[in-house]
Design a protein that fits this description.
This protein has about 170 residues and is of the alpha/beta class. The chain has 5 helices and 9 strands, in the order E-E-H-H-E-H-E-E-E-E-H-E-H-E.
Length: about 170
């Protein structure tokens, strides 16, 4: 199945000269959603993973399905102020400002192999901050998985020390 064909491209959103890659159309298509989840499972089924970390919010969808299929727990990486227990945080730069991610301080144990999952790899800032959180807690980043890669934005270069797996790639942004 051509997963790329199931992803809607919206020009000039959220601002001029940006092409937004909308995965809602992939999610709404049962066959495409199943295919994407199956491809993640096939890639990671023989990798030593203890938990799957999903990045808010669309990363949660794929992390949960993959964790279920692999029989692993799910770790939630959320925007600042969204988690109810003691957290650690990591700030990172965005195109127009800064943001902060948090994770519960007891969600990852030292030495655990953590797969980080999100819907899209652009500049790599969000997932690099997520990897830093995993490593601050003593976890080992077992890999980073994405539905979409925007290679022109250099995210893979930012994540070069990690195994990066993507399902589809879109040139241009």
């Amino acid at each position: 199945m051509d997963l790329k064909a199931t992803i809607r491209s919206i020009p000039n959103w959220p601002k001029e000269k940006i092409i937004f890659r909308d995965i809602t159309t992939l999610l709404e298509n049962a066959d495409a959603f199943r295919e994407a989840c199956d491809r993640f499972y096939e890639h990671y089924r023989n990798v030593k993973i203890d938990k799957i970390a999903g990045i808010e919010a669309r990363g949660f969808l794929f992390a949960a399905v993959l964790a279920y299929r692999l029989g692993k727990g799910v770790v939630l990486i959320r925007k600042k102020g969204k988690l109810p227990f003691k957290t650690i945080s990591e700030s990172y730069s965005l195109e127009y400002g800064e943001s902060t991610l948090e994770v519960h301080e007891d969600s990852i144990n030292a030495g655990e192999n953590i797969l980080i999952v999100d819907d899209l790899l652009a500049t790599g800032g969000t997932v690099k901050a997520s990897a830093n959180l995993v490593e601050k807690l003593g976890g080992i980043v077992a890999g980073c998985a994405f539905v979409i890669d925007l290679p022109d934005l250099g995210g893979k270069e930012v994540l070069k020390k990690y195994d990066v797996f993507t399902l589809v790639s879109f040139e241009g942004h």
